[in-house]
Design brief:
CATH topology: Rossmann fold
Bound molecules: S-adenosylmethionine
Largest sheet: 9 strands, mixed
CATH architecture: 3-Layer(aba) Sandwich
Shape: globular
Strand content: 15-25%
CATH superfamily: Vaccinia Virus protein VP39
CATH class: Alpha Beta
Number of domains: 1
Number of strands: 9
Length: 271
C-alpha cells in the first residue's frame, strides 16, 4: 500500500509540473558527449555515472537561464566534482556572466575540476573550496540573488557503510541525507536551487519538502534501465527492501535489471 503511495506521489508530481520525460541507457553517454563544445575531452573524476552528469547539466542549464533573467550573479555548486555541468552552462548560456563557487570534499575531484575550468578558459570566474557540503552550507550564508546547484550523493546506502566506492553516491539510509539538509536550509527567499535526485531517494519526503518551501519551476524525469552503483550486489537488495517499504520507487525490471528514475528539479525558495 505504502509502495503504491510513493509511486502515485511521484506520478502526480511529474504530471503537475509537466515533467520533461525521457529514457537514458547505461553507457549511452560517453565522456565526449559531456562537453561537446571544443576539441578537448574533459577530465573525469572517479564518479562513474556519465549519464547522471549529463542529466544534471540540463538542470544547471535551466538554472543559468533563470539566473541571467533574474539578476543572479553567483552559482554555488555543492559536490561539484569535474565541474562539467557548470562549465557547460557557462559556455551554452553566455548571458550568465556571474561567478561559480565549487565545493567538494574530494581532493582529486577539486584538482580535476580546476583543470577543466582552466581548459575551458573559465578559471577567473571560479572559486574552489574543499569542504563538506553541509558544513559549507552551515557556515556560509548564501547571498540574496544567488543560485545553489547540487547533484549530491542521493542513493540509499545501508547504515554504517564505509566503502569509498560509494562516496560520490552515498545519501544515507534513505538517500535524503544531503537533499533534506539542502531543502530545509535557511536560504534567502528567491534563491534558485537546481537539484538532481532520484526515485530511490524517498520521493514522498523529498516532494513534501519541495512543496513546503519552494515554487517548482522545472522538472525532468529520465528512466534508466539500470544504474552502475545500484546493481552492486551490496546495494541492490537494500534498495529493493526500501522500495517494499515505500521509501524508493523502482521501475519494472527488464532483463533482470532494476530500473529507476533520475529526477532533476529547478526550484525557487518561497519561504
Ligand atoms: C554524484 S557526484 C556529482 C559530481 C558532479 N556534480 C556531477 O554532476 O558530475 C557527487 C560529488 O559530491 C562529492 N561529495 C560526496 N560527499 C560530499 C560531501 N560530504 N561534501 C562535499 N562533497 C561531497 C563527491 O566527491 C562527488 O564529486
Amino acid at each position: 500500500m505504502k509502495h503504491k503511495n510513493a509511486h502515485s506521489v511521484l506520478a502526480q508530481f511529474f504530471d503537475q509540473h509537466h515533467a520533461v520525460r525521457g529514457t537514458i541507457a547505461r553507457g549511452h553517454i560517453t565522456p565526449t558527449d559531456l562537453l561537446p563544445l571544443g576539441h578537448v575531452t574533459p577530465r573525469l573524476t572517479r564518479f562513474a555515472a556519465h549519464h547522471d552528469t549529463w542529466l544534471f547539466s540540463k538542470v544547471v542549464g535551466v538554472v543559468a537561464e533563470h539566473a541571467s533573467r533574474s539578476g543572479v550573479t553567483s552559482i554555488t555548486d555543492l559536490g561539484a566534482g569535474s565541474c562539467i555541468p557548470t562549465i557547460r552552462a557557462c559556455l551554452e548560456h553566455p548571458q550568465y556572466t556571474g561567478r561559480v563557487t565549487c565545493v567538494d570534499i574530494d581532493d582529486d575531484a577539486l584538482k580535476i575540476g580546476a583543470e577543466n575550468v582552466t581548459t575551458y578558459q573559465l578559471a577567473p570566474r571560479y572559486t574552489f573550496v574543499r569542504n563538506d557540503m553541509l558544513d559549507y552550507l552551515d557556515r556560509n550564508s548564501i547571498a540574496t540573488h544567488s543560485a545553489l546547484v547540487a547533484n549530491p550523493p542521493f542513493l540509499p546506502v545501508p547504515p554504517g557503510s564505509d566503502d569509498p566506492y560509494f562516496l560520490p553516491v552515498d545519501g544515507g539510509p534513505d538517500g535524503t541525507h544531503y537533499l533534506r539538509a539542502i531543502l530545509t536550509s535557511a536560504l534567502p527567499v528567491g534563491t534558485l536551487v537546481g537539484l538532481e535526485w532520484s526515485s530511490l531517494s524517498n520521493p514522498a519526503a523529498v516532494i513534501g519538502m519541495m512543496q513546503a518551501f519552494y515554487d517548482v519551476l522545472y522538472v525532468q524525469a529520465f528512466d534508466i534501465d539500470a544504474g552502475i552503483y545500484t546493481e552492486a550486489p551490496r546495494l541492490r537488495p537494500y534498495i529493493e527492501a526500501q522500495a517494499a517499504r515505500g521509501l524508493a520507487v523502482v521501475n519494472p525490471p527488464a532483463d533482470g535489471l532494476m530500473g529507476w528514475t533520475f529526477i532533476g528539479t529547478v526550484l525557487r525558495k518561497k519561504r
